[in-house]
Write a structure and sequence with these properties.
- Strands 4, 6, 7, 9, 10 and 11 form a six-stranded mixed sheet that branches. Strands 14, 16, 17, 19, 20 and 21 form a six-stranded mixed sheet that branches. Strands 12-13-15-18-22 form a five-stranded antiparallel sheet, with no helix packed on it.
- It contains one helix and 26 strands.
- By secondary structure, it is an all-beta fold.
- It has three domains: about 160 residues, Immunoglobulin-like, CATH 2.60.40.640; about 160 residues, Sandwich (Immunoglobulin-like); about 60 residues, Zinc/RING finger domain, C3HC4 (zinc finger) (Herpes Virus-1).
- The radius of gyration is 32 Å and the shape is elongated.
- The longest helix is centred in the last third of the chain and has 9 residues.
Amino acid sequence: MTYSRCGIVALTERKSRFLEIQTDRTSYLLGDVVLVTINAKMDHMPKYESVVLLVSCVGTISRTFTDAKMPPNPKVLSKTYFEMKNEFMNQNFPLSYSFSLPGTSPFTGEESSFVLTNPIISQIFKISAMHSYRIDLFVKQDGKIYLAEQKDIVVRRTFQQIQPSPSWNFEIDNFKIKIVLDKPSYYPQENGFLLFEVNSKVQRSTSIPKVSFNQTLIFNFDDQQIVVKKQIIPQMSLPAFQPYYYGKRPLLFKIPEGLPPSHSTPLFKVEYSFDISTDLFYEGGAQNQLKLVLKSTILAPPNLCGACVFMPLITNDFNPPSESILRPFWQEDKSTDTCGICGASFGLITRRHHCRRCGKVFCGSCCVDSVLMKDLGFDRPERVCKSCFKLIQSN
């Protein structure tokens, strides 16, 4: 039988298995230095022409479609991300060799898989992706190449540099909203929050904002790209933003355990995002729908990583902000039939008007003055009642 990797084809006969591979650690981070030692298993070794050490990382994605009427038809696509070869003519064992793991290569393991099952017609569609790091040891003897030993090594994801927290700004028709994640990346089982900063000058409430945390898997085959999007956290929601709301409102969440870290390779990609949607309503029935995607990063748990100089500090301290309302709520129209100052009854002639400072309802005569109130988030003069006007003037 033969074994092939990175262009080397070798025989796999038992008579060549006289060497063993040892590494200084069981797992590594990308960029770490790996120390390899080749030892002889017996005192009197056969004489080889040379010993070849191959270090490689190979990525594989597979796509399998199984039907009750047909056998499975797997399609496998592989890619070599890096390879290093070193040939030893000197055979005084033990032999030592060291190399650095590339900082941009993928990490080890089955990163993710997707299975779609149709029980009615007995069909199964499965996609999986995996990357492996392997040390192969070959010997050359009598003009032939034999496989002497193999050893897989575990490579964990390197900690990412902290980037500014993802945010999103939007303004349309007197409605401003800014949504910010408290941090750009999270570990599994870590708490976090989205902060909604809203400055509304619209006289109707929004719909209930809905938020979902999703995982996107992208498999790149030669003939097609398969994209699978899965909801990781059940849909979350916030109370609707009232008319003329001005303030900050947090939405708390917790990242589930067992998620594969975010990463990207030519064969396979894992991405995470918060998908947010809400509707804006206007007088007369007009409506705008807001939909946005905030991308986030999931990191590998530090307890899965090898030795490294820097280990991030993960604490249980989580102090999310509470809601801060910077402008009084608007009084509902139907809550009163008379002006809050003069007592005039509202009707076809006497219309309701809201004071932009206190939020209460008055008639047009008692709510006629306009004042610029930057402390309440207004960038132009707004209507205020007589009481608030006198208070502002006195201050």
